[in-house]
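User: Reviewer 2 asked us to show a designed sequence for the structure in our supplementary figure. I'm pasting the structure tokens here. Could you produce the per-position amino acids so we can include them in the response letter?
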């Protein structure tokens, strides 16, 4: 994907979307790495119950 626009020229819609997708992917990868590291640290700890308590 080669770009023929000049440095001072505003980014096209495709360029903006491409940059947004790359940023989103990088953020999701970082979140996945953090979750994996957190899971390794709490390997022996029991999982908290995520179901809410009923008040009946």
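Assistant: Here is a per-position design you can include in the supplement:
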């Amino acid at each position: 994907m080669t770009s023929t626009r000049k440095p001072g020229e505003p980014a096209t819609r495709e360029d903006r979307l491409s940059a947004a997708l790359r940023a989103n992917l990088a953020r999701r990868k970082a979140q996945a790495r953090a979750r994996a590291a957190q899971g390794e640290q709490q390997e022996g700890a029991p999982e908290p119950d995520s179901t809410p308590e009923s008040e009946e």
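For the response letter, you might also mention the following. The chain is about 50% helix and 0% strand. The mean pLDDT is 81.
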